[in-house]
Amino acid sequence: MKKNKKNTSENIEEEKTEGVIIKIINFIRVISLAFVCGFLIYLFTIAADSFTRIILLPFLLCACCLFWQNIAMIKNNDLMAEKLGKVYVLIFLLYWFGMIGFGAYTMISDGEDLMVLVLLPFILAGFYVIYDTFFKKR
Q1: Which residue in 34, 132, 53, 120 sits closest to 90, CA to CA?
Q2: pLDDT tens digits along 10-65
Q3: Residue 98 to residues 26, 69, 102: CA-CA distances in angstroms?
Q4: Cα(56)–Cα(7) distance, rounded to whole angstroms?
Q5: Cα–Cα distances in Å, from 15 out to 8, 22, 50, 64, 125?
Q6: Shortest CA distance to 23 belongs to which of 73, 82, 84, 81?
Q7: DSSP state, residue 110
Q8: Helix and strand numbers, DSSP H then E, in the chain
């Protein structure tokens, strides 16, 4: 019986150690993401034209989502971390389908209608990410 108590206390101690390691990793991520966000904000503010800002915006928003998601993980707020993860995927998908739409528009306007089929795997991949993130039961 003493052995079970010892194993239980060792397991609890190992879980605490693992939790501390995960928090340290998330803290390192937060620091690196803070630098990335700061750099992207700097680039966004000094951008000469609106086209550059449009290109930088999804990267900035995704980096900020990851930053706050890691802060939520450090604070053990799993619900907020999950929601921010979904916001991250949503921003990425808007950018993904926007680029696909731009590519399709360019191909069709150049008269290369058959080349639009090249975009089909990317469209299917985007729909799979939507299904996997928002509709799949876990």
Answers
A1: 132
A2: 777 777 788 788 888 888 999 999 999 999 999 999 999 999 998 899 999 999 99
A3: 31, 24, 6
A4: 52
A5: 11, 10, 49, 30, 37
A6: 73
A7: T
A8: 4, 0
Query: Can you give the three-state secondary structure of 67-94, one letter per residue?
Result: HHHHHHHHCCCHHHHHHHHHHHHHHHHH
Please give the structure tokens belonging to residue 12.
Answer: 């609890």
Amino acid at position 29, single letter: R
Structure tokens, 115: 């080349």
Structure tokens at 122: 């990317």
In terms of pTM, does the model score above 0.85?
no
Q: What are 63-90's pLDDT values in tens digits? A: 999 999 999 988 989 999 999 999 999 9
CA distance linking residue 119 with residue 96, whole number of Å? 11
Tokens representing residue 117 in the block: 């089929």
